[in-house]
Write a structure and sequence with these properties.
single chain, 271 residues, mainly alpha, 0% strand, disordered N terminus
C-alpha cells in the first residue's frame, strides 16, 4: 500500500506539468481559438474595470490638500488612466475587428480588411501599448517603493481600493506580455513607431503643462519635488516622457521579434 501511494504521489507532479503544457499540444487552429477566447475575457475584464472607475468610484468627492484644487475629472490627467484607455481600446479593437472578423459570421466580407486591421493592430501594440504600459507600470511601482506618498498619498486608499490599483498598475503588464506571447506581431519601421510614441508622449506632456499653468500645481507631487527650474523640468520630461519610453520601445521590438521567430520554429517542428 505504501509503495502504491508513493507511486501515485510521484505521478501527480508529472500530471500537473502535462496538463499545464497541454495547450501547446493543440493544433494551431485550436490554439488560436483559445487565444481569441482569452482576448475576449481580457476585453470583458477591461470593460468592467472602466465601468467601476467611471460609475462606482466617486473620485470627484476626493477631499485632500494635494488633489483638491485640480478640478473635476482630474483623473483624466493621470498617465495611468491614459494607459488604461490605450489598453481598453487595443483589446476591443482586436476582439471586434480581428478575432470576430476572422472567425465570426459574415467573415467573407470582413476578411477583405483583415490584413489592414492586423497591420493597424501591430503598429498600435508595438509603438504604443507595450512601451507605454511597461514604462508607466514599472515607474509607478518603482516610485512607490522609494516614496509612495509623492505619487499615491495614503489617503487615496479611502477612495481607491487595492485591487483597482493593481488593475491599473500591475495587471496591464501581465496582459500585455500575454498578448505578445500569443500573437504574431509584424514589426513596423522603428522610425514610424518612434514617431507614434513621441506624438502620444508630447500630447501628455502638453496636458501636464496646461494643468500646471491653469491650476498652479503639478498633477504629480514628484515633479515639483525633483524640479526647481525650467531646465530641470525639461530634463525631467525628456527622461520620463521620451527617453525611457523609447528604451521600452526598443525592448518591445526585440521581444516581438524573438516571440515571432519562436512561433515560426514551433510551426515548423509541428509540421
Amino acid at each position: 500500500m505504501e509503495a502504491s501511494s508513493s507511486l501515485s504521489s510521484a505521478k501527480r507532479p508529472a500530471a500537473v506539468v502535462t496538463s499545464a503544457l497541454r495547450c501547446w499540444s493543440y493544433t494551431e487552429a485550436e490554439r488560436q481559438h483559445l487565444f481569441r477566447v482569452s482576448r475576449l475575457f481580457i476585453t470583458s475584464y477591461y470593460v468592467y474595470v472602466s465601468y467601476y472607475g467611471l460609475f462606482v468610484l466617486d473620485l470627484n468627492g476626493v477631499d485632500h490638500p494635494t488633489w483638491g484644487n485640480l478640478g473635476s475629472n482630474w483623473w483624466w490627467k493621470c498617465v495611468s488612466v491614459w494607459n488604461l484607455i490605450l489598453q481598453i481600446s487595443y483589446f476591443i479593437y482586436c476582439t471586434v475587428f480581428i478575432d470576430f472578423a476572422d472567425s465570426g459570421p459574415g467573415k467573407s466580407w470582413k476578411k477583405l480588411r483583415l490584413q489592414q486591421s492586423k497591420k493597424i493592430r501591430d503598429f498600435i501594440f508595438v509603438s504604443l501599448v507595450f512601451p507605454v504600459t511597461i514604462d508607466v507600470c514599472v515607474m509607478f511601482w518603482a516610485i512607490c517603493a522609494v516614496n509612495k506618498p509623492l505619487l499615491f498619498p495614503n489617503e487615496m486608499n479611502n477612495w481607491i481600493p487595492d485591487w483597482y490599483n493593481h488593475a491599473v498598475h500591475t495587471n496591464p503588464i501581465v496582459l500585455t506580455l500575454f498578448d505578445m506571447a500569443t500573437t504574431k506581431h509584424r514589426l513596423p519601421k522603428l522610425i514610424e513607431s518612434t514617431a507614434g510614441l513621441f506624438t502620444l508622449s508630447g500630447s501628455y506632456v502638453t496636458c501636464l503643462l496646461y494643468n500646471k499653468f491653469t491650476t498652479g500645481r503639478w498633477v504629480y507631487l514628484i515633479i515639483g519635488e525633483v524640479t526647481a527650474s525650467l531646465m530641470e523640468v525639461i530634463i525631467y520630461f525628456a527622461v520620463t516622457a521620451f527617453i525611457m519610453p523609447f528604451m521600452c520601445l526598443l525592448i518591445g521590438h526585440k521581444m516581438c521579434s524573438w516571440f515571432s521567430s519562436s512561433q515560426m520554429k514551433g510551426k515548423h517542428k509541428m509540421s
